[in-house]
Amino acid sequence: MTNNTSEQFHSQPQAGRIGKNYVDGVNHFFPSAIIDEEWQTENQVTITVKMTSLVEVMKWLYYDQGGWLTVSFGNDERSLNGHFAVYHVLSMEGEVKSFVTVKILVDAQSQEFISITPTIPAAVWGEREVRDMYGLRPVGLPDERRLVLPDDWPEDLHPLRKDAMDYRQRPQPTTETETYQFDNQLGNDSNRIVPVGPLHITSDEPGHFRLFVDGEDIVDADYRMFYVHRGMEKLAETRMGYHEVAQLTDRVCGICGFTHSVGYSNTIENALSVDVPFRAKMIRTVLLEVERLHSHLLNIGLSSHFVGFDTGFMQFFRVREKTMELAELLTGARKTYGMNLIGGVRRDFLKEQRVKGIAMVREVRQKFSELVEVLLATPNINSRTQGIGILSKQVARDYSPVGPLIRASGFKRDVRIVHGQSLEAYGSVPIELQSMEDGDVYSRVMVRVREVFESLNVIEYGLDHLPAGAILTESFDYKPNKFALGFTEAPRGENIHWSMTGDNQKLFRWRCRAATYANWPTLRYMLRGNTVADAPLIIGSLDPCYSCTDRVTIVDTKKQRSKTVPYKAIEQYSIDRKHSPFKL
Amino acid sequence: MFKLIKTVFNTGSVTTKYPFAPMSVSEDFRGKPELDAAQCLSCGACTRACPANALIMETDEKAGTRRWELSTARCIFCGRCEEVCPTHAIKLTQNFELAVTNKADLYEHAVFSLADCSQCQRPFVAQKLLEYVLDTLAQSGVPAAQLSERRKQLQTCPACRRANNMLDSDNISHLRFIKEQQ
Known about the structure:
The complex is a heterodimer. By secondary structure, chain A is α+β, with helices and mostly antiparallel strands. Chain A is built from 19 helices and 17 strands. Chain A folds into 3 domains: 15-180, Beta Polymerase, domain 2; 185-229 and 514-584, no CATH class; 232-513, Orthogonal Bundle (Cytochrome-c3 Hydrogenase, chain B), CATH 1.10.645.10. In chain A, 40% of the residues lie in helices and 19% in strands. By secondary structure, chain B is of the alpha+beta class. Chain B has 7 helices and 6 strands; from the N terminus they run αβαββαβββαααα. In chain B, the strands form 2 sheets. Chain B has a 4-stranded antiparallel beta sheet with strand order 2-3-5-6. In chain B, strands 1-4 form a two-stranded antiparallel sheet. The longest helix of chain B is centred in the last third of the chain and has 13 residues, at 127-139. The relative contact order of chain B is 0.13. The chains are: A alpha+beta, B alpha+beta. Chain A binds chain B through residues 240, 243-244, 247-248, 251, 311-312, 315, 318, 321, 325, 328-329, 332-333, 336, 338, 346-347, 370-371, 373-374, 377-378, and chain B through 1, 3-4, 7-8, 11, 14, 25-26, 28-30, 49, 51-52, 76-80, 83, 92.
C-alpha cells in the first residue's frame, strides 16, 4: 500500500462525525466526565469516562437519548495502559443513528468497578461475565452468581486475563456438586419446581431451566446456560491469525454463522479503515439474507410443530430445503459458507449462479406464500399463540433484546435499517422494517413470516443488480491496538462483535455477542403467568436451536418424590395438552 | 384445510432415494480435498493457511523425508488450501461421503524426499522444491554459468550459507554485483 492511500484511509473517519451530538451532550450535562474521545469510524466513537460519572452518563444516553445497550465486556489492558477496562456499547437509535462506546478504566489493584445494572438491567449478563472472565468486581450488581464459569472452576482463576493459565490446560475441579442457586423472585417454597434440562428442548446449547409452578401456571422461571462454553474468544486471541478467525466465527452458530463471520470481518475492516469493494458488500448482503431465509423457515416450521400442526412443519421444511440448495449453489456449502476474508469475500457469483439463484428465489416465494395462507387459516395457530408469552414494552426497553423478539413488541430496532448506511450494502437494497405491536408469540411468528418476503426481495435484487468490480481488497497493513465494532442483523437479532488488533499477527481481544445472549434475560418475564404446556412454545419463539436429546425431571417439593419424563413426553404434551406427564 | 390437502397431493413425494441412489451436489460444492502428489512441491503454504490445523507437515531428518498429512476429521472444507496452493496441487472434490469404519482411514498422507545440504549433509529442503526454484531461474533467463553457481548456493542449508557468508569467498554474491557496478 502506498503512503498516499494510507493517508486517505486515515482521513475517512474525519469526513463526517455522526453522533458527535451525543459526545457534546455528555460534555454539556456532565462537565469533565469525559477523559478521552476516540473515533473509530464516522459513526463509531469511544469515550472514556470517569468511573464516578459512569452511571449518570449511561442513564442519560440510554433512557434520554434512545440508546440501547448492545454489549458490555471487559478487556485486560494492563500491558497497554496499566488498567483493566470495561466497555459498554450503546446503539444510539434516537434522532441520530450511531454507536457510542462508553469505556471505563478499572484500577489493576482494587479491581472494582461500578455496576450499571441497577439502572440499566440490560447490563446484567455482561457484568456477570466480566466478573467471571476478568475477576473484576461489579460494585452494586444485584445478581452475583457466576454466569459463564462452571461450578467446579477455581475462585481465583480468570480465563481471559492475559496472565491466566495456558488455554490448553484445565484446572483441577474444585467441587463435585452443583452450587448454582436458582432464583425464584415472585413465588415461595410452596411452588413446585419443574427443571427443564440440562440439555434443553429448544436450545442448541444445553441450558437448564427451572420453572417454579403453581399447578399448571408458571410463577417464575430461572435458567443457566454456558454448559458448552467453547472458549472461542481465548482461542482466537492465542492461536489464530486474522483470516483464520473469520472461519472460526463461521462456527459460532450452526444456523447463523455467516452473520458472525461478517460481523467479525467488519470489526477489523472498520478498525483498519479497509475499503471493502462494493461487489463484495453486495455478495455479503445477499448471503446474509440467504441465511435468514433458511433460519426463519426453520423457526416458522417449528412453531407449526409446537402448536400441533405437523403437516405444516413438514411443508415448511420442504420449502426450506430449497433455500439450503440456494446457499449451496452460491457458496459451495449448505452451511458454514466460509466466504469471508478481511477485506472482502473469496468467491464470486457467476452469471449462471445468479440466473439459477433468481429462479430459485421466485420458486420459494411462490411456494412460501401458499403455505403461509394455509398456516394462517389453521385455527390452532391463533388459539395457541395469540396473547401467549407476552414481552411487555417496559421489559423490552430495560433489557435491550434484539431481533424479531423486540420488533414484535413494537420497537423498530433492526441494524439493517437503523444502521443500514454503514452495514454492507443494506443502504442500497429495497428493504422495510417489519414490526408488530402485541409482543406475543403470534407477533413473533408473523414478523418472521414478513421478513422472509423481505429477504427474498433483497436476494433477488442483489443477484440481479450485482455491481461490477473486485471482490477483495488485499492492500492494507495491520496496525496494532486498533479496535472497532462490527454489527450484523442475524435472523435472531443483531450480532455485535468488537475486536482489537494485537502486535503479534493475532487479535488482542475479540468479543462476540450473539443475538440470543441479549434475549435470554427477558425470557423469565415472558414465561411468568403462562402455563407449563406453553413453555416450549415460548422458549421456541425466541428461536434458539433445538436439541432433541432432552429429558425433564420433575421434583415435587411437597411429596419428596421425583420422576423423569423424556423430552418426547413434554413435547407431546405441548402439542395435544392432554394426559399431563407431570402428575406424580 | 382443503388448500392444505391440495398442496400435499400436488407436491407428492419429495423424499430422495439416497443413499440407495446417488445424491447430486452443485458444481462448486466444497467437499473432500484431494492432493495431486505429483504436482505438490511440499512448500507448506496450505499448512500455514489451514484454519483448522487439518493439514500438517512433518520433517523426519533421519529418513530424509517430509510428510504431508490431511486429517479429514479436522477438515472444515473451507478451501483455503486450494486457494493458496502455488501449483494447483490441492483441489476440493465433490465427495461428501466421508464416514469411515476405521479411524486411520480419516488420514491421508504423502511423503516427499528431502535434498541434503552439500556441506553438512543434513536434509533441509524438499528435492522437488529445490528443482522447481532452479527450473524457474532457468526459465527466467539466468545463464548456464550463473545457474551452476546458484545451484551450489541453493544446495547449502541456511545455516551453512550463513557460515559461508561470514567468510570472504566467491560464494558471496553481493560482492560480485558491486564489482560489476564499478
